Amino acid sequence: MIREISISFIELVGQVDWMNDATKRKAKEKMESMIDNIGYPDYVLDDKKLDEEYNGVDFDPDKYFENVVTCLKYLTQKEREELWKPVNRSTWSTTPAVVNAFYSRTKNQIMFPAGILQPPFYNSHFPMTMNFGGNKRENTW
What we know:
With about 140 residues, this protein is mostly helical. The protein contains 5 helices and 3 strands; from the N terminus they run H-H-E-H-H-E-E-H. The model has no long low-confidence stretch (mean pLDDT about 90).
């Protein structure tokens, strides 16, 4: 699906008359350099890497709310440590369970978390038209 969007975008850019050739080349370069994160980060399925990712974070199986707060504090601290460092374009800025898709202008990154890649939004057995329609964004304002 991402490949189809990319191909369509590049074709459309080539057809518009309001962009000059230099701008069209830049738009094509940006599209071709876009990072696509699909499903979940690699470390999620690797117990060792997952343990490393959350090393030092103590969770209590009987305290859901406290675990959420603990995790948010940990992630906030982790984000602070990244300030003033070069941007890591491969870092996920959402969790796999999120039912939404994202584009980050600063990272030139598109993300389709696993949560949005489930029926009724997406199914590999659905026709492409249903998958594209199921993942459209609607403005509610």
